[in-house]
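Lecture notes, continued. The same structure-token format from the folding unit now serves as the input rather than the output. Read the line below as a description of shape only.
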């Protein structure tokens, strides 16, 4: 104790400062290099690959869409991705302070933060939809496979299961059958073909989204979708609560699981009716759609 007491106060202060700096540096470093690699993989594959890319590819010419996609990827996407990666690695700073040596470019860092916040807001909504469907799928009778629920109306039908409405002189009728002792009666209602809605659509729009007819009619939030959104935010918060110390561990899962989901979706989609036509639409390029810059 006497030797410690004889150490100058300035030396003690410097030792404390060095220790604090070292601890702060350790908090901003990956525990293992593999966590860094997995974090890059998980950031490269996500909702966009499962949810957005197939829709954009089908809308913009199928297989022909891959040509402008890869051109833009190698000319714009990959260089910017590498630039952002290099700035973070060599400066060991976040977007807000990475451009501190170039004052004129600090706005780029704040724009990156704003962009991430906006993406996080609507991405979490989509994640909450997936959680809602995940929980609802544990039922024996799936709610989006029938028209017998309280949110369904007379326009609802199940393709391939419900008897199709018949047509008389160009008019479509939706009929229900009533069995009596000696006869069968049909109660028919005239409907418009364009007003018919599948049970799957009504589950999504009327139960999950509670979609209103007017923008200003917000309605009352539904309990279960709101709980799904809350769970999504809790999961995201738990993943980033300790920065890269926690997100690095999560990367082991998020880097592998999307590929498992993609593989399962490919297998399931290949077994559906019309899968061959879908594959042909994707493989055979439609150049006239690619030429349309809309």
């Amino acid at each position: 104790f006497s030797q410690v007491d004889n150490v100058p106060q300035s030396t003690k202060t410097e030792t404390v400062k060095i220790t604090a700096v070292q601890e702060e540096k350790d908090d901003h470093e990956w525990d293992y290099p593999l966590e860094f690699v997995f974090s890059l993989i998980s950031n490269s594959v996500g909702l966009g690959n499962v949810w957005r890319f197939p829709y954009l590819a089908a809308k913009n010419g199928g297989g022909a869409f891959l040509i402008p996609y890869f051109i833009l990827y190698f000319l714009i996407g990959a260089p910017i991705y590498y630039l952002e990666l290099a700035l973070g690695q060599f400066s060991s700073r976040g977007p807000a302070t990475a451009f501190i040596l170039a004052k004129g470019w600090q706005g780029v860092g704040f724009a990156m933060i704003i962009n991430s916040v906006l993406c996080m807001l609507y991405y979490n909504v989509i994640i909450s939809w997936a959680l809602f469907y995940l929980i609802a799928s544990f039922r024996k009778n799936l709610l989006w496979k029938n028209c017998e629920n309280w949110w369904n109306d007379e326009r609802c039908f199940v393709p391939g299961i419900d008897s199709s409405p018949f047509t008389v002189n160009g008019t479509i009728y939706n009929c229900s059958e009533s069995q009596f002792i000696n006869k069968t009666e049909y109660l028919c209602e005239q409907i418009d073909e364009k007003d018919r809605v599948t049970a799957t659509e009504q589950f999504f729009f009327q139960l999950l989204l509670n979609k209103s007819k007017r923008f200003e009619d917000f309605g009352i939030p539904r309990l279960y979708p709101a709980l799904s959104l809350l769970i999504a935010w809790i999961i995201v918060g738990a993943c980033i609560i300790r920065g890269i110390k926690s997100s690095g561990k999560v990367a082991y899962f998020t880097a592998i699981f999307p590929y498992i989901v993609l593989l399962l979706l490919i297998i399931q989609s290949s077994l559906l009716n019309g899968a061959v036509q879908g594959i042909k639409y994707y493989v055979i390029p439609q150049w006239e759609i690619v030429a349309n810059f809309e």
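Point for the exam: Residues 166-172, 178-182 have pLDDT under 50 and may be disordered.
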